[in-house]
């Protein structure tokens, strides 16, 4: 699936150039360059500790980069915190479902961007109404709007996180193992959603361990090892073995190395 | 569970009486516990009175009517004794919800109290030349106190939020520092008597009187009814399910009866005749025969109600409150949502500082002087009140009304035991056991309800 051709002649949606991040003496990300075009899904692959999450956190503003440059639509972007990232319409869906468990779905969806009344008080009724609308599209059977999200299933929680990205018109979406906490049916739902978002011209960085899933969902894959970029390949050309080889050996397969 | 009717508001089909009323069952449990405590002490004091009069009977109704716990006088005293701890407990809710702790509130109260006492007795008359009982003295002292609390609170918050020193350590340090800064400010002396207007905030020395208490009660009822109605209207406007009309009316009725009943009880506590006569003589009048006057709502309790309303609005209706609970529920999620968590911590401790200052006004005005030991061990009472009131130390959960009820329950236990002649050490043993037991009940309750 997902064989639609991506037009890569224009300006990339996102370009991260020579990104650097070190923790103590360890170079978690060392001179990595990746890009992403509208309507494209780029898989970010690698072992645990390869630096893929750190790379994406620099884009989402959760970590401040030590070096390198980020361009959004060809313009240099200064991203130093999550608020900056949101201004560039970069939304993130985290592996461990970054929701406040004690708050309800609406409060989580609007967290940090609450709708307020003219007097400046949070407008819970309007936020709940909006949440009902947006979540009605993604998960029509969802009813538990006024209970804390701690009581929701993994899939329901994930759809709160995805609704957040959709509601705020994300142009660039970072998904950090979005299906890691989900069951089969829920994983399929997320896959359908990714296809849907692609059609709307949203660019997605997908961090994943599952090579099979990457082959299915992504257009290209950027493989990292020990903080360095091994290479970026077209997943329709590279085989699963090629990708595995890149992850484990940290070398481009000969037939792909140009 | 919901009716998908196309016309008119959706009405929730209630599963039971309490479900229909949509009242927090936890709140009901606390009110129930409070009422049980009241009844036990009412009967206990009733039996004691009968024995003392050598007129013991086996009639339970006589025990109730002879009791001294649920008299206007004792209820009046209970409320004014609760105020100081209750005010600080509302702030402690925010602190504990964000997984912090504040051990310094009692000491901070003492420093604020000392600052205000010195303003009244040294700064105002000495440096500013204001005469004794000048009308500006009390407002000036209170402003000084509030600023003191705000600044110290902000400083604590900065140490915790920006320098990332654990709140436990910062406020443990504060516990030592501010207690003794207070001692230094007052030169270790008891400072008093405090300004007459200032003393109005203490409780019995400043009440609204019967008429104004009724006015307050009616305004409160009107506000509550308006709140219920506008909440219902908003729900209908957004086509959310609403509860049946009879449930709304029941809730409104209970609230109205509770507020007006409370006012009636406080009004029923009559000012002693001698005191009234003196007041008339001071005005150069003669007291009419058979004249009586009720105390009504103490100003300190009025202050507590204002604080409770303001803190509840902050907790439930402002971004600040939303962020406090989000930070407590999942600090990482809060940060990733772009919340400035460090500034948030500073704001929380600023709120606590101001509340300590308000408590300092009430506490020092109640005893009519500033003493070195004012507020000693209050930090533990405040934490206990918040925790008995359902604030979870693991963060993210807590309510303002719960903390106030927690303070009231603790004070009732202590006053009740004092009335029936339980010695102070045993009182403390009981309070300690109740604290642990209350938290255990809360844990069981949360497991059962899965929340």
Which terms would index this structure?
heterodimer; A: 258 residues; alpha/beta; 8 helices; B: 451 residues; mainly alpha; 18 helices
Shape of chain B: globular
Point out poorly predicted stretches of chain A.
Answer: none
Mean pLDDT over all positions of chain B: 89
Which structural class should the secondary elements of chain A be placed in? alpha/beta
Q: Helical amount among residues of chain A, as a percent range?
A: 25-40%
The pLDDT mean of chain A sits at 87
Q: Got a strand count of chain B?
A: 0
Shape of chain A: globular
Major β-sheet profile of chain A? 6 strands, mixed
Strand order of the largest sheet of chain A: 6-7-8-3-9-10
User: Uncertain regions of chain B: pLDDT < 50 for 5+ in a row?
Assistant: 1-7
Helix-strand string of chain A:
EEEHEEHEHHHEHEHEEH
Could you describe the 3D structure shown?
The complex is a heterodimer of chains A (258) and B (451). Chain A is an alpha/beta fold. Chain A has 8 helices and 10 strands. Chain A has helices at residues 52-60, 82-87, 105-109, 124-138, 154-167, 184-199, 211-217, 240-249, and strands spanning 14-23, 26-36, 41-45, 67-72, 75-77, 90-93, 172-176, 203-207, 220-225, 228-234. In chain A, the strands form 2 sheets. In chain A, strands 6-7-8-3-9-10 form a 6-stranded mixed beta sheet, sandwiched between helices. Chain A has a 4-stranded antiparallel beta sheet with strand order 2-1-4-5, covered by helices on one side. In chain A, helix 4 packs across helix 5 (154-167). Chain A is globular. With 451 residues, chain B is an all-alpha fold. In chain B, 71% of the residues lie in helices and 0% in strands. Chain B has helices at 17-21, 25-52, 60-66, 72-97, 105-127, 137-161, 167-185, 196-199, 209-237, 245-268, 273-282, 299-317, 319-329, 331-336, 341-367, 378-388, 400-419, 424-449. In chain B, helix 6 (137-161) runs antiparallel to helix 15 and helix 17 runs antiparallel to helix 18. The radius of gyration of chain B is 24 Å and the shape is globular. The two termini of chain B are 19 Å apart. Residues 1-7 of chain B have low confidence and may be disordered. Classes of the chains: A alpha/beta (258), B mainly alpha (451). Chains A and B meet through helix 2 and helix 4 of A and helix 9, helix 13 and helix 14 of B.
């Amino acid at each position: 699936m997902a064989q639609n051709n991506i037009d890569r002649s224009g300006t990339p949606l996102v370009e991260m150039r020579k990104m650097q991040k070190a923790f103590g003496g360890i170079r978690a990300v060392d001179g990595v360059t990746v890009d992403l075009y509208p309507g494209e899904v780029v898989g970010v692959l690698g072992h645990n500790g390869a630096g893929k999450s750190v790379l994406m956190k620099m884009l989402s503003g959760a970590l401040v980069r030590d070096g390198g440059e980020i361009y959004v639509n060809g313009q240099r972007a200064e991203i130093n915190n999550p608020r900056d990232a949101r201004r560039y319409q970069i939304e993130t869906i985290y592996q461990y479902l970054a929701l406040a468990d004690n708050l309800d779905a609406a409060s989580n969806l609007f967290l940090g961007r609450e709708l307020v009344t003219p007097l400046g008080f949070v407008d819970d009724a309007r936020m709940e109404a909006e949440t009902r609308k947006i979540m009605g599209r993604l998960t029509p059977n969802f009813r538990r709007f006024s209970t804390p999200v701690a009581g929701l299933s993994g899939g329901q929680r994930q759809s709160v996180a995805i609704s957040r990205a959709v509601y705020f018109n994300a142009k660039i979406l970072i998904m950090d193992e979005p299906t890691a906490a989900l069951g089969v049916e829920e994983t399929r739902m997320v896959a359908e959603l990714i296809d849907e978002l692609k059609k709307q011209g949203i660019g997605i960085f997908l961090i994943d361990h599952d090579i099979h899933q990457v082959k299915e969902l992504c257009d290209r894959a950027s493989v990292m090892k020990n903080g360095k970029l091994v290479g970026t390949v077209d997943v329709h050309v590279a085989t699963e073995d090629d990708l595995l080889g890149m992850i484990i050996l940290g070398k481009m397969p000969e037939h792909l190395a140009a | 569970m919901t009716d998908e009717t196309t016309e008119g508001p959706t009405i929730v089909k209630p599963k039971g009486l309490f479900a229909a009323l949509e009242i927090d069952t936890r709140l009901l449990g606390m009110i129930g516990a409070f009422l049980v405590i009241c009844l036990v002490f009412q009967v206990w004091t009733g039996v004691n009175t009968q024995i003392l009069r050598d007129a013991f009977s086996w009639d339970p109704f006589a025990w109730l009517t002879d009791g001294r716990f649920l008299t206007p006088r004792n209820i009046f005293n209970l409320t004014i004794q609760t105020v100081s701890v209750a005010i600080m407990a509302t702030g402690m809710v925010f602190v504990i919800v964000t997984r912090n702790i504040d051990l310094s509130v009692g000491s901070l109260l003492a420093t604020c109290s000392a600052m205000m006492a010195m303003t009244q007795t040294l700064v105002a008359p000495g440096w500013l030349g204001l005469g004794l009982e000048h009308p500006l003295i009390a407002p000036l002292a209170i402003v000084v106190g509030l600023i003191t609390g705000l600044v110290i609170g902000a400083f604590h918050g900065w140490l915790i939020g920006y320098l990332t020193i654990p709140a436990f350590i910062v406020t443990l340090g504060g516990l030592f520092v501010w207690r003794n800064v207070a001692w230094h400010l007052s030169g270790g002396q008891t400072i008093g008597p405090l300004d007459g207007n200032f003393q109005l905030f203490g409780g019995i020395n400043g009440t609204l009187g019967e008429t104004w208490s009724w006015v307050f009660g009616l305004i409160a009822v009107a506000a509550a009814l308006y709140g219920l109605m506008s909440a219902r209207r908003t729900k209908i406007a957004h086509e959310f399910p609403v509860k049946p009309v009879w449930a709304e009316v029941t809730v409104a009725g209970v609230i109205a009866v509770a507020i007006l009943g409370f006012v009636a009880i406080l009004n029923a506590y009559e000012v002693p005749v001698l005191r009234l006569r003196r007041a008339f003589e001071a005005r150069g009048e003669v007291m009419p025969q058979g004249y009586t006057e009720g105390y009504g709502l103490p100003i300190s309790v009025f202050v507590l109600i204002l604080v409770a309303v303001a803190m509840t609005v902050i907790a439930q209706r402002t971004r600040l409150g939303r962020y406090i609970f989000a930070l407590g529920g999942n600090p990482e999620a809060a940060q990733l949502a772009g919340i400035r968590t460090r500034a948030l911590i500073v704001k929380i401790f600023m709120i606590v500082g101001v509340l300590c200052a308000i408590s300092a006004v009430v506490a020092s005005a109640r005893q009519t002087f500033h003493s070195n030991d004012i507020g000693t061990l209050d930090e533990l009472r405040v934490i206990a009140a918040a925790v008995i009131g359902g604030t979870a130390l693991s963060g993210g959960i807590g309510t303002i009304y719960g903390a106030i009820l927690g303070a009231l329950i603790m004070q009732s236990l202590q006053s009740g035991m004092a009335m029936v002649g339980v010695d102070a050490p045993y009182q403390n043993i009981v309070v300690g056991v109740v604290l642990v037991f209350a938290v255990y009940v809360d844990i069981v309750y949360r497991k059962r309800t899965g929340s």
